[in-house]
Design a protein that fits this description.
The record marks 22 as: Participates in the substrate recognition with KAPA and in a stacking interaction with the adenine ring of SAM. This protein is an alpha/beta fold. Helices cover 36% and strands 19% of the residues. The protein has helices at 10-14, 58-61, 70-82, 94-106, 120-137, 158-162, 206-222, 247-260, 312-320, 336-368, 397-406, 428-446; strands at 33-37, 40-44, 50-55, 111-117, 145-149, 182-184, 190-194, 200-204, 227-232, 236-237, 243-244, 263-267, 291-294, 306-311, 377-383, 386-391, 409-410, 417-420. The longest helix has 33 residues, at 336-368. The radius of gyration is 22 Å and the shape is globular.
Length: 448
């Protein structure tokens, strides 16, 4: 183990010791967080000087209620005083059962069963396993592949990676190790437009939409005997490019699944719990999935927890199968502490999410409107409390991040995107600061 000098800063101690997501060990120095409260992070430099910034990322979608929320803190403390963890094999507990009841009640469509997982990626693994087990149980064991669309992202574990975009994903880094699935073209882009009367309508290239539907149906039919299910991020593709597509595409997928005996798996890990302006993005299409994955915002960003929900029909088929059980069992499955906090997070969500998401989205639209005129900007798009500024070329991530921090805002751009999805509790002033920082940072680093 290398020796480290006493008194060096936290970021210095971290660099070269700890891997960060998609970053080399000798990559840019990370920012050291010393505190977090409300929608703000406190960053501390080597000299001990602190800088307060608004977290415009909600810690990668999950901290929807902000930090140190008294209701979530109280739920965590109360559960710790009872017990923080017990195995879920052969045991059960109130936080897990109560959370499962809540999730099946609010989920899109008639969900009846819940499997708790450790993380979003693991929930996708479980959903894919479940789909294969279902097909075997109903007499179609030869269906071993999945149909999805290009541009998607479903996680970093092996099965999840295999259904991510084959070009922009990580397929090339693991040749031969990933299962080969069927990829349809990315759906045509769309925009949600809100009229002066408040009416919502979706706009897209109608001819491109019709062509996509024809292609998707033909591809599904050509591989019908080998496809077990369709997996997709409903309406908004997240890490694959913050890309919005028309709900009619999801309706097509639901129709194709019904016609061919496939399961429709909705990956709502990023889009669930209000972020797109609906409690679940599937609701934009009124297309209920057979299997639903949720995570990220489930605990309000306090603890890692995900869940896989499915219908009575799917549960019954698995129960009648050779194995009778869903063949997965994480050590920390249904962790009581995480489940208790998730229940409290849903309590908070129910009271005001719709108004808050609409308010944050409207404030972002106003604040970031000038970005449309910037010469470095290719596109500006939004959905719910998500706003994306897409550049003509790759973002200089370290430089834009530094420029935003100097303006009091934390952002984490990627590829050619500078985007924000603030906590729902962000004030109008917070959102205005975020918008100004994004525009200012883009102009400082990528201005003409």
């Amino acid at each position: 183990m290398p020796e480290r000098a006493a008194g060096v800063g936290l970021a210095d101690r971290d660099r070269g010791l700890v891997w960060h997501p998609y970053a080399p060990l000798d990559g840019p120095e990370p920012y050291a967080v010393s505190a977090a409260s409300g929608v703000r992070l406190t960053l501390t430099d080597r000299a001990g000087t602190t800088t307060e910034v608004i977290d415009a990322m909600a810690s990668w979608w999950c901290a929807i209620h902000g930090y140190r929320h008294p209701v979530l803190d109280a739920a965590a403390h109360a559960q710790v005083d009872r017990f923080s963890h017990v195995m879920f094999g052969g045991l059960t507990h109130e936080p897990a059962v109560a959370l499962a009841e809540r999730l099946t009640a609010i989920a899109p469509g008639p969900m009846a069963h819940v499997f708790f997982a450790d993380s979003g990626s693991v929930s996708v693994e479980v959903a894919l396993k479940l789909t294969l087990q279902y097909q075997a149980a109903v007499g179609r064991p030869g269906r071993q592949r999945f149909l999805t669309v290009r541009g998607g992202y479903h996680g970093d574990t092996f099965a999840a990676m295999s259904v991510c975009d084959p070009v922009d994903g990580m397929h090339s880094a693991f040749p031969g190790a990933l299962a080969r699935h069927v990829f349809a073209p990315r759906p045509p882009a769309a925009r949600l437009v809100v009229g002066g009367d408040g009416a919502e309508r979706w706009e897209t290239d109608e001819s491109a939409l019709a062509e996509w539907e024809t292609t998707f149906r033909e591809l599904a039919a050509a591989h019908a005997d080998e496809i077990a299910g369709i997996i997709v991020e409903p309406v908004l593709q997240g890490a694959g490019g913050m890309y919005v597509y028309h709900p009619d595409c999801l309706r097509t997928m639901r129709s194709v699944a019904d016609e061919l005996g496939l399961l429709l798996v909705a990956d709502e890990i990023a889009t669930g719990f209000g972020r797109t302006g609906r409690l679940f993005a599937s609701e934009w299409a009124d297309a209920a999935p057979d299997v639903l994955c949720v995570g990220k915002a489930l605990t309000g960003g306090y603890l890692t927890l995900a869940a896989v929900l499915t219908t009575l029909a799917v549960g019954a088929a698995v129960t009648r199968s050779e194995f009778r059980a869903l063949l997965h069992g994480p050590t920390f499955m249904a962790n009581p502490l995480a489940c208790a906090v998730a229940g409290a997070s849903l309590d908070l969500l129910e009271t005001r999410w719709k108004d808050d998401v609409a308010r944050v989205g409207a404030a972002l639209a106003t604040g970031l409107a000038p970005a449309r005129e910037h010469p470095a900007v290719r596109d500006v798009r939004s959905l719910g409390a998500v706003f994306v500024v897409q550049l003509h070329g790759p973002v200089d991530v370290p430089a834009v991040t530094r420029a935003a921090v100097r303006r009091g805002v934390w952002v984490r751009p990627f590829r050619d995107l500078v985007y924000t999805m603030p906590p729902y509790v962000s004030s109008d002033e917070d959102v205005a600061t975020i918008a100004a920082a994004v525009i200012g940072a883009v102009d400082e680093v990528h201005g003409s």
